[in-house]
Amino acid sequence: MARFDITSEAFKREPHDTLSALVEAGPFVDLKIPILGKMAFATQFDAAMHVLKDKRLFAVDGRNAGLKSQFGLRWLPKTFQLLGKNMLTQDDPDHRRLRKLADGPFRAIEIDALRPAITTLADQLIDDMERSESPDLIEGFCRPLPLMVICELLGLPLDDRPRFMRWMENVTNAKSVISMVTLLPSLRKIMSYLRAEVERRRIDPAPGLITKLVQAEADGDRLSEDELLANIFVLFVAGHETTTHLLSTSVLTLIQQTDVREALCADWSLARGAVDELMRYNSPVQMTKPRFVREDTELLGRTFRKGDKVMVMLAAANMDPHEFENPDVFDIHREKNRQMGFGGGMHLCLGIHLAKAEAEIGLERLFKRWPDLALGVEASSLRWLGRTGLRGLTSLPLSINGAQVIPKAA
Ligand code: HEM
Hints:
The chain is α+β, with helices and mostly antiparallel strands. The protein has one domain: CATH 1.10.630.10. The chain has helices at 9-13, 16-25, 45-53, 78-83, 94-102, 108-131, 137-142, 144-154, 161-171, 177-182, 184-203, 209-220, 225-256, 258-266, 271-282, 314-317, 352-369; strands at residues 28-33, 37-42, 58-59, 291-293, 297-299, 302-304, 309-312, 374-375, 398-400, 403-405. The structure holds protoporphyrin IX containing FE. The site of protoporphyrin IX containing FE (HEM) has 25 residues, from helix 13 and helix 17.
């Protein structure tokens, strides 16, 4: 088991060899990760798809697999338990009901209508970075762009953004059970802020998804107060941090792969295929949430007992040579790129069209403004996030048209 290191910064920096070895050792490999402990990971494409699609055999709520608790953990603070009412931690029929209530604004057609607004936001951020003495691409672009877009979609006031970013940063930095406890105050602040926003919408229905969810609850009594808060929260967390890491890793890859960048800059209609390949190659979300086995079974040569935990290593499935020819090669012209970076099955990412649009637009606006964007430091000195399961940079110092741009806190 110790053979595979999937938590160190070295792995985040250069994950491909380890991922290929995980594919080879699959379809299931036992790994130990912080907080959740030891479990089987599906590391090959077919096994990964099977776990995500077979809802008869796999549940996301441990209680549907005979366990006492939803997450299969012995102890969890109350505030976390409340968050368990979000769609990602519910099985059908609750999952279907919650997803249906939220999915309208995330359909491809709705997201296409948002493209001009996303373009304007991206340009404003680039203008600000150009004016700033010490801009950092993560702080100035990769983090605020998705955050501003999700604020817009939910209808949260943009003025609250700095406060929210601070709280969210604390919440999303948990690496261990101990840091889960220290993030509780921020989590409570977020929940009481959202509770107040929900109350405000009951009296004054401002535009945005929060109002729609509040009204859905009032109309048909279909969304409890806890479900409402948990789902707004998950849209917030899932809707910005993941996309931040897609943007940061994508910019790095395009800086390093000069040929691809030049091809893209000559024809931005290639952006759609490029973003799919950037998702596959970088897998910013490296693994799914755990699934729980509903009954004793044998799957692809492995025996599982009722209640066992299984996770899907999306980043490894994305390197499976049976699905992707020459998986190590970054090829934006790949045909039928079924990359798994957004998961699969009934919990397939709700924000898939939004995240792709943000990446396509964000990369085009950045490289159109700064075609000679380069690293301001050696690639080896870039710092990678320590959090297990997420792959992204903590800062990205750049050199624009030959002038070095140093981040505020490199
Ligand atoms: C690059 C950006 C993103 C990546 C890589 C990503 C990845 C994922 C993955 C892997 C899952 C499935 C997890 C599992 O099965 O355990 C998921 C689910 C989800 N994502 Fe995303 N996501 C991204 C952006 C977004 C955005 C922008 C939103 C919305 C604002 C969003 C909202 C959600 C929601 C609500 C779910 C749960 C869906 C369900 O349970 O039915 N995500 N995402």
